[in-house]
Amino acid sequence: MSDQxxxxxxxPLAIGAGTSSGPEWRTELVALASGVEVRNARWASSRxxxxxxxxxxxxxxxxxxxxxxxxRQGRLRGFRxxxxxxxSSAPAGQVVSATDQVIGAGDGSKxxxxxxKTYEAxxxxxxxxxxxxxRIAVGGAELEEGWSVDxxxxxxSLDDPPAPxxxxxxxxxxxxxxxxxxxxxxxxxxxxxxGRAISVPIIEIR
Length: 206
Description:
By secondary structure, this protein is mainly beta. Helices cover about 5% and strands about 40% of the residues. It has 1 helix and 19 strands. It has one helix at about 60-70; strands spanning about 5-10, 20-25, 25-30, 35-40, 45-50, 80, 100-105, 110-115, 115-120, 120-125, 135-140, 140, 145-150, 155-160, 165-170, 175-180, 185-190, 195, 200-205. The strands form 6 sheets. Strands 1-6-16-19-5-2 form a 6-stranded mixed beta sheet, with no helix packed on it. A hairpin with a 2-residue loop joins strand 17 and strand 18. The protein is globular and about 65 Å long. It starts with 5 loop residues before the first strand and ends with a strand.
């Protein structure tokens, strides 16, 4: 995903119960004259969607969301979103460790590796790690120094290339790169001091 049209800012409202989310695939279905159905995957990986309308509960929330939406110009500009159901390299409920995810193996010369997270058979590139949460290990031994991470691409740079076949692993928290999936927000003032959003759809940028 290109960072063109991306603002490195986090969605401003607290996310809690009531937020809906899930992966989306694009599948092409073709029914042949014989009645046989042919299915073709149009995408190599899924795309996440959320509706975060439940984050709005007060007039102050309405104002913050409206200002943030205007600053992003609707669907035009991307931003960071932290999904509390999926924002860590570690299994749910566990603490991040430097050996959570395999991100590559040494070949004696390579020094750059991309953060990634494996979901069973699917591997997703992680491009927006949370500052201060990334941990790196080479051959199972955590590195306290001798490496750096690009916070906007998720690329790890090691000072020294790992020996051939040596696994490089990482642990991290991360944000999703998203945009609003609408150019209009429907916001409702329920009564003095309280507000509600009808729908606030956001979608992953890939």
